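Appendix C. Worked example: Yellow-c2
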Amino acid sequence: MLKLAIFTAFISVGESGRYGAGLPSDGFRRDNSGIKLQEVFAWSKIDYNWPNMEARDEAMRNGVYVAENNLPLGVAKWKNKLFVTVPRWRSGVPAALNYISLDTANATAPLNPYPDWKANALPREDETPTENHIVSPFRIKVDPCDRLWVMDTGLAGITDNHKRIFPSAVVIFDLKTDKLIRRYNLKRSDINGWSSLFSNIIVDVTKDTCDMAFAYIPDMQGYGLVVYSFADNNSWRVRHNYFNIDPLKGDLTIGGVSAQSPFGIISVALGPGKKNGKKLLAQLPIMISDKEMYFQRFRTAYFHSLASTSEFSVSTEVLRNQTLATDPRSYVLFKFEGNKGERAQSSASVFDEKRNVLFLGQIQEDLLACWNPSTKLTPQNVDVVAVDHEKLIFINDITIDDDQLWILSDRMPSFLYKLLNFNEVNYKIFKVSVEESIKGTRCAT
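Step 2, the predicted output written as structure tokens:
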């Protein structure tokens, strides 16, 4: 079961060998320290903007709010709102989808449940959850059409009582009205039994094609990728060996926690759009109708597993077409881009189209890295944006908005398998100009 797999992922805790061989010297910028990130928010514990203190006290008495069990994981920005997810790893999380107003000067600002408290409250046994209900999302995305896309796992108490509240679902909100646009439950064929854990959602759309959006949903523990078509309100599961773990790259040490990770594909980052026509499809003896080719501007989707140091890619021309994506012969259309380095296992990633740069959170080295796909992917061409062995322990999400990188780090391995010191800062959100972040690096080529 999912619960068992997560518990057996991290098998030992120790302080020795925390940073291994350190950062490779060849190809890295400056003195390997990178640039200084601007710290925007920092918390030792997460708290919420409660209706009143009586509500907070009652939630604490009833176990609805246990401060130590709240870990921020995903981040997304829209105008003056910064959205932050708090998955229900354990009981005591009162709101899993939240936002912070960026107008605040409070660096320890409490979280505001989104769209409201009711949508985030776990239903009682006799209650039927509402359509806009949110149980436990990991990462989220804001698209150019002013929509918030949420991949809700539907699970509560993932590492303790492990209860399914809702089917795993794509939940889409209109950010201008805070109203639900659509809730789409994944089909049984999209799910790999109890193994599936959908930890991310990546949206493929432009502001001119809002009704033809696609979402790519990695199944990091079921080793697959689900594609969702907004226009057809349909989904399909894509399989490939590249979605699996590399068994030789699964032993990790992060923030003093030694681990063997079972997690496969965790992130997808979309490169610039380009017209591929039917050249790619000509490689396979498959007839594709004109209807299936209606969305002609395709991207390169870069992806990786957490337990791997390799990066792979595939054209979204393949993923968007159900016939092609699910045909076993299509495996030849996936590409091995290269190896990022000996200890370069990565969590979150994001692509800056303007500068043609892929950003990656390298979790063993406590750093934010970059690579420009105009160069071959080798350790020498992967450069350092920022590194900090205290503040950047486990970069769990990265997003770009208005030419700014937003980075969330949260010491998740210690939270799950060791013990955080709640007398010190544990969770941080940073920002930095994309232009400044790659200045002087090989990524600026």
